[in-house]
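Quick one: structure tokens for this chain, please?
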Amino acid sequence: MLDTNVLMHDPAAIFRFEEHDIYLPMIVLEELDQHKKGLSEASRNVRQVSRFLDELMQDASREDIEKGLALPTHLTGNHGKAPCSGKLFFQTQQLQGSLPTDLPGHGSDNQILAQTLALQAIHPTSRVVLVSKDINLRIKAAVVGVHAEDYFSDRTIDDAEVLFTGHTALAADFWEQHGQHMRSWQEGARTYYEIKGPSVAAWHVNEFVYEEREHGIEAIVRKIDGESAMLELINDYRSERHAVWGIAARNREQNFALNLLLDPQIDFVSILGPAGTGKTLLTLAAGLAQTLEDNRYSEIIMTRVTIPLGEDIGFLPGTEEEKMEPWMGALMDNLEVLTQSADGGSWGRAATNDLLRHRIKIRSLNFMRGRTFLNRFVILDEAQNLTPKQMRALVTRAGPGTKVVCLGNLAQIDTPYLTETTSGLTFVVNRFQGWAHAGHLTLKRGERSRLAAYASDAL
């Protein structure tokens, strides 16, 4: 038994239950009809559900509907699930289900509960499960004796704690196990190693490996071929003379991040981390260095999800860029850090700021549909507040020569109904893992201030 909110959340939900039969009561179809108008994500999903149902019911007779409609898998991807072998049933007759007399109200939730109880009575040998995103409905279902579950198929992973971090420490006895068949060579200024051994199976392309000891090896996995892996020693941006736009990495993880951001072979970078780990500052410094010094990109485009922390302050005046400025405090704060070392005093800093503002464009997510970015450095801030569908729409805006960088903190999700396991940021980290032109890194060590570091831990 599917609740309406499941279909409003994922229009392809009817194709995700593998061998199970699906039952749609009439009240669900009525609620779908009530929500079909509008430009919201939920309304678009409802209209897509209606199109799916219409396609399934083409040429179906009353007898076919009574027996259940077969569920094909060609209508949409099934997210790695097994092909559908169950059937889709609609409510074709009045079901008599009795709820406890002391259960107040006559809402749609109560009707769905009554239908589920009636279905249990008609099919005593089958297990009837009510699937709903509504926590309160699941609580009421448990009270009246109905087995209810959340909808799990939208989860990218089962637990955000096991999300790919992008780096791994080498064991103390690593060289004893992997040093016998090692081969090393140089190509220009780059040093490469070919390593064989048991640890290789757990590595991914563009993952960083390092030794915990001082002056230990720090390398990136460039290629994996069976039981052998090719490693490349990374650049060290922790010294001032190798600083990127005046910014030097303060720890190992930040150094890894700069290596990903400055690598022309990597088109997509995702960086996770709590407040104060340097995500935005490092990304902006790398973008400016490649845009103004190397001319690799024509301009930097920065955008973010506009969800307020408190109450909304209403409409904002001005152009698209001016409306976005209050949301871009992070950009302005980091630009101050990047331009404070400019020569020429306040006049020099003002001129530098003016130059940078011409090469950094602030854009709203609302107008991204249909756009194509050529040779741009695109920064998507606060990406944890995007759904997987929105994330897919944004990343596919990238044209030739464009690099997309997604920044976010999974502990600061403000979008209703999104969790750490269903966020679009978790979705792209998981799906791009192991691709030769994508890299991911999770930053843990805060570098903003001792106050911010303590607040992140203690609060």
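The first strand starts at residue 22 and ends at 24.
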